[in-house]
Amino acid sequence: MTLPSHDIDRPEVLAEIRRVFDDYERALMANDVDALNAYFWADPRTTRYGIADRQWGMAQLAAFRAATPAPAFTRELLHRRITTYGRDMAVAQVEFLRSDTPLRGFQTQTWVRMAEGWKIVAAHVSMIAFDTHR
Description:
By secondary structure, the chain is α+β, with helices and mostly antiparallel strands. The chain has helices at 11-30, 33-39, 58-67; strands at 47-49, 54-56, 75-85, 89-98, 104-114, 117-128.
């Protein structure tokens, strides 16, 4: 099946994802564990790969969040890229700088519209030494 080009980056869907993405970022920096858990699809197939961790399924993700202290750093988001596919799927990617490390972070989230709203079904976070001149 080929997705018609007019179904990619529909303005109203982009606006929805930008809003939930920004809300997720606020919850992350506030360490609002309940809100963070609610952004993820409550399913054993949900996957999150972190900087030095991995969660398969909502049970592992909730345990990880419960054990993670509030961040002692700030984040500056760079180069946010969101692409929507139809009305019910989106990929959000962002680079970030943290105040506690010279490394550059990269974050990808796959969002799907479920009956209960937009949910992250897969996420990946990494940090590397990065030369911005490459």
